[in-house]
Amino acid sequence: MSLAAEAFVSQIAAAEPWPENATLYQPLKEDQILLSDSASSLAVQTFLRMCGLPVLVSCRANAEYMSPSGKVPFIHVGNQVVSELGLIVQFTKAKGHSLSDGLDDVQRAEMKAYMELVNNMLLTAELYIQWCDDYTATEISRPRYSSPYSWPLNHILAYQKQWEVRRKMNAIGWSGKSLEQVYEDVSQCCQALSQRLGTQPYFFNKQPTELDALVFGHLFTILTTQLTNDELAEKVKSYTNLLSFCHRIEQAYFKEHDRESQSGSSRHSKGSLP
Amino acid sequence: MLEDGLLLLFMHTNMAEPMELLCWGGDWDLPSVHTDSLIVLAYAKFSGAALAVKSIDWTWRTITASVPQLHFEGSTVTEPTQILNFLRKQRFNADYELTAKQGADTMAYIALLEEKLRPALLHTFWVDAENYANLTRPWFTSHSPFPLNFFVPGRQASLALSRILLTKAESPLLNITEVEGKIYSEAKECLNLLSHRLGNFHFFFGDRPTSLDAFVFGHIAPLIKAPLPSGQLQKHLNQLDNLCQFCNTILKNYFTDASAEKRMDCSPTATHDPVDANLQKLTQLVNKESNLIEKMDDNLRSSPQHRPHRHDTKPSAPASENSTRA
Fold it and tell me: Most CB atoms closer than 10 Å: which of A14, A165, B23, B89?
């Protein structure tokens, strides 16, 4: 969104309270959604729960095309549509709900930096593993991405998406990396997060912030999603404080929700419950 | 052949490990005009590694080599992160005093720089028409041999543009002009965040420079020193006194031969006066607001569908409304 449109939206957003029928749209849970989209969606849902804002999750096959920026998930609140965690955080802030108000400037800088770290490393690694690793792309990503469509559209869309992601990887210099290097990067990222978290309950001590939501979204999805091999989940599991962090947030914010539908939703149909 | 000869000569003259670094040459008081090369050069100075610096200007390497490149005992390392890891393995470590948490912070801030600041830097130098035509292209053309001088700048420019479009332009923002607003506002925010984090300290983690300082220096030094014809980001950066001071301190202490007389664009006094810090914050905030208001005004004037709704003030503007046109 251009700056003017953003300011315009913020002002309109500030005028109305959060409605009861706010909806979050994502691709189909069982068949279509991929690891990276599932992680982003879970991060947004966690953030909204942390703010205490009700939202209905609606699964649509064409969620990606409905989104204003092409990224999922996106939320439909009142008469506005906002996608991506960063913009959603801004939007909820304009409505008066914010998790990071208590932070001073230096802490806010740190929080933004760590969110970029997660986006830069974890999300990019997830995209790489899904689309640039041939085995995973053939076995999992392409079939799932194109499952709602019939032939030949499914082939065309899947290959188009793969080509787009590979171009992007090329531009940022990740196409030269091997799978081992990517796993190593994920491990380093988890190490940095683990060191930052230490023994605290949340990243900024007592109160959860959007950083906690983002990290939870990615780590929980990685842990509970079955890919062609378990190496990614193993990398995350080796950091015990991150595991207990995920548990804690799951207990605190998702326990009243139907547990099976939450943990079962991010399983790919190949895998079984660990 | 010539390089091997040079390497042998160095091996004879210094018994310490002769590591050779290929990078772009220097100008505008800087040892190199290229961000990644600057990062490596700064880190080498901080960690005390003796590097034989070879500039690739006027050689065929301007188009063949991916710079910076470190040669050592037959192995070649590229990319700043890899080179820094390599130097650390060779026991040139500027980060050994950092705690685990500070190490994690380093990774996070480097990610912030790469995501938020680099696209705007690429745009300022390579995509912005005025800067490219008047500064970047002439410089790189004059520092490349014939006939490469026809190809080198163009290739870098197209790589920069494609990187910006692929990473920042999602489907509704296919036009570069719309992406511009977004990347510059993100870059300004990033610079503000860095300034907040640096505060009144000399370096990001206390009194000794570390790899994070090298990365920040590499990114902001060209922005401060280059004589850009149209540089809104440069103007914004010049208002952040502590970052200018940081850059000049590094240049003065570690690169004295490259920066004889510096005409500093920002205030030379490093006062720790809290009143000045508040004034600086207020100035930043007012300029941020006024930049946004200016942009919003321009956008509203040019977009027909918003004409009925005239919004003159940004919704959450805490500072006074005598917005100075930056």
Answer: B23
- Number of structural domains (chain B) is 1
For the stretch B186-199, pLDDT in tens is 899 899 988 888 88
Q: How far apart are CA B114 and CA B118, in angstroms?
A: 5
What distance in Å separates the CA atoms of residue A137 and residue A160, rounded to the nearest whole number?
13
Q: Do B108 and A116 touch (CB under 8 A)?
A: yes
Contact A137, A130 (CB under 8 A): yes
Partnered with residue B51 across adjacent β-strands are B19
SS3 B174: coil
Assigned token pair, B40: 């490596």
Subunit contact A195:B101, Cβ cutoff 8 A: yes
| Alpha carbons within 13 A on the beta-carbon side of A183 | 14
Asked whether the beta carbons of residue A68 and residue B172 sit closer than 8 angstroms, the reply is yes
**Residue in chain B nearest A203 by alpha carbon:** B101
β partners of residue B25: none
- Together in a domain, A22 and A158: no
Residue with tokens 């970047």: B136
Name the residue among A14, A116, A172 with its Cβ closest to that of B116: A116
Give me the residues of B, 165-224, that contact A with CB < 8 A.
166-167, 170-173, 178, 181-182, 185, 189, 193-194, 196-197, 199
Local confidence band at B320 (pLDDT 50, 70, 90 cut-offs): very low
Chains A and B form CB pairs within 8 A to the count of 111
Q: What is the DSSP string of chain A?
A: --HHHHHHHHHHHHHSPPPTT-EEEES-TTTT--HHHHHHHHHHHHHHHHHT---EEEE-TTHHHHSSSS-S-EEEETTEEEESHHHHHHHHHHTT--S-TT--HHHHHHHHHHHHHIIIIIIHHHHHHHHTSHHHIIIIIHHHHTTTS-TTHHHHHHHHHHHHHHHHHHHHT-TT--HHHHHHHHHHHHHHHHHHHTT-SBTBBTB--HHHHHHHHHHHHHHH---SSSHHHHHHHT-HHHHHHHHHHHHHHHTTS-HHHHHHHTS-TT----
What CATH number does residue A127 fall under?
1.20.1050.10
Which domain covers residue B85, as residue numbers? 17-256
**Do A154 and A132 belong together in one domain?**
yes
CB within 8 A of A11, min separation 6: which ones?
Answer: A94, B311, B315
Query: Which structural domain range is residue A222 located in?
Result: 105-258
- Look at A168 and B167 and tell me if their CB atoms are within 8 Å: yes
> Touching check for B111 and chain A: CB below 8 Å?
yes
Tell which residue, B104, B182, B158, has the closest CA to residue A203: B104
Check residue B78 and report its DSSP letter: E
- Burial zone of A17 (CB within 10 Å; 0-12 exposed, 13-18 middle, 19+ buried): exposed
DSSP letter (8 states) at residue B72 = E
pTM of the shown model: 0.78
For residue A71, tell me if it sits in a domain: yes
Question: Residue A33: which residues within 8 A CB-CB, separation 6 or more?
Answer: A26, A27, A41, A59, A144, A266
pLDDT at A17: 82
| pLDDT tens, position by position, A59-103 | 988 888 888 888 888 999 888 888 888 889 988 888 888 888 888
Residue in chain B nearest A111 by alpha carbon: B108
